[in-house]
Design brief:
Distance between the termini of chain B: 114 Å
Largest interface: A-B, 17 and 19 residues
Number of strands of chain A: 5
CATH architecture of chain A: 3-Layer(aba) Sandwich
CATH topology of chain A: Rossmann fold
Number of strands of chain B: 0
Order of helices and strands of chain A: EHEHEHEHEH
Number of helices of chain B: 8
Number of domains of chain A: 1
Helix content of chain A: 40-55%
CATH superfamily of chain A: Response regulator
Shape of chain A: globular
Oligomer: heterodimer
Number of domains of chain B: 3
Distance between the termini of chain A: 11 Å
Radius of gyration of chain A: 13 Å
Structural class of chain A: alpha/beta
Largest sheet of chain A: 5 strands, parallel
Chain lengths: 126, 260
């Protein structure tokens, strides 16, 4: 299963990529903002999107709305990983259809737990 | 008509009044006389009050004017001070703008932490790879697991860079906004380069070594450790030239002076 990691900070993309590898997801692509991610999502099938919120020019929140509005992409599991930790943010993301929400800084166990909660058993790595 | 002697005046006046009151015409005369005297007294009292009022009003007006004048003076002084302070924030001339300098410094902090985080990440990745190699070779599993955990911890610790970067970006954006507002104020106040120059001189730090306190150097600025080593060892460069400081050539005499 392919995973798309979206973050404007290369450090964070690298951290998430490493954590994903550790828990068994090795087919990973990266995007540096919502627009870049949307383009990739429309070209390749991804089984999971892990996205930051605060990016330019397209934020993770806008990406989420675009994904949910797209007939072909709307069922793609989407986890928001962000420093935006206000209740309003979480509620807005929930309303927009996010599957889970992780606040930075986070640990490997939290990431694994959230991924497990949104993935169907068949999609999980062995 | 001369006044009555004091010792006789009261009795004499009373006797005269009684005599006059005996006739209706005399009584009418006395009543009219009393009314006129009262009226005259009232007029005099009213006039005195009016005078007092006028005098009081003049005093109050003068006092209010004084307060107003003082307020205006204070306001003018504050405006002049503000004008000076604004001029000192953003003096003319390249590299002399405090807000721009602060913004650049923060940009460099972001870049430096990004670079540091990348280096730590590389080490963490290597630790994780070694842990995996050890596992594959059947080396003591608890040790491998501990190594793996340490690598993961290092990895996670690097996420500070994202958070500090975001905060720095916020500060940088605020500084840029402030710069725009300061520029607008400078335009409104009509601050000249001369005003700014005077204030920069005024704001120079009083520490004796203030001119040496520049903080960490940016990329391409400052002196490389190799240059410093060469400088301290009195060595010459590959082409035989004396090691120089990046911000301008220093003569050997200058350098020798530094070590006396």
């Amino acid at each position: 299963m392919k995973v798309l990691v979206v973050d404007d900070y290369s450090t964070m993309r690298r951290i998430i990529r490493n954590l994903l590898t550790q828990i068994g997801y090795t087919d990973i692509d990266e995007a540096s903002d919502g627009g870049d991610a949307l383009q990739k999502l429309r070209q390749v099938h991804y089984g999971l999107v892990i996205s930051d919120w605060n990016m330019e020019p397209m934020t993770g929140y806008d990406l989420l709305k675009q994904v949910r509005a797209d007939e072909k992409l709307k069922t793609t599991p989407f986890i928001m990983v962000t420093a935006e930790s206000k209740t309003d943010n979480v509620i807005a993301a929930k309303k927009a259809g996010v599957d889970n929400y992780i606040v930075k800084p986070f640990n490997a166990a939290t990431l694994q737990q959230k991924i497990n909660s949104v993935m169907q058993p068949a999609s999980k790595p062995n | 008509m001369s006044a009555l002697p004091i010792d006789q005046s009261v009795d004499y006046f009373d006797a005269l009044e009684r005599a006059v009151r005996e006739t209706p015409r005399g009584q009418a005369f006395l009543n009219e006389f009393a009314r006129r005297v009262r009226s005259n007294d009232t007029d005099r009292v009213m006039s005195a009050i009016e005078q007092l009022k006028g005098s009081l009003a003049e005093t109050i007006t003068a006092s209010s004017m004084d307060v107003l004048r003082r307020e205006l003076e204070t306001m003018a002084a504050s405006i002049a001070q503000t004008r000076k302070e604004i001029a000192s924030i953003k003096p003319e001339g390249p590299g002399n703008n405090r807000i721009v300098t602060a913004t650049e410094e923060l940009d460099h902090v972001v870049k430096s932490t990004e670079k540091a985080a990348a280096e730590i990440l590389s080490s963490a990745e290597r630790v994780l790879a070694i842990a995996q190699e050890c596992k594959d070779k059947g080396i003591e599993e608890p040790l491998c697991n501990e190594l793996e955990e340490l690598g993961t911890n290092l990895l996670m610790a690097c996420s500070f860079q994202d958070l500090t970067g975001q905060r720095m970006t916020k500060v940088v954006n605020t500084l840029r906004y402030l710069e725009t507002r300061v520029n607008a104020m400078i335009e409104i106040w009509g601050i000249t380069a001369q005003d700014a120059e005077k204030l920069v001189q005024h704001h120079i730090e009083s520490k004796p070594d203030a001119h040496l306190l520049n903080g960490p150097a940016k990329d391409g600025e400052g002196v490389a450790q190799d240059d410093i080593d060469r400088l301290l060892n009195g060595e010459h460069g590959e082409t035989g030239e004396v090691a120089v400081l990046p911000n301008g050539p220093a003569s050997q005499d200058d350098i020798d002076q530094l070590f006396k």
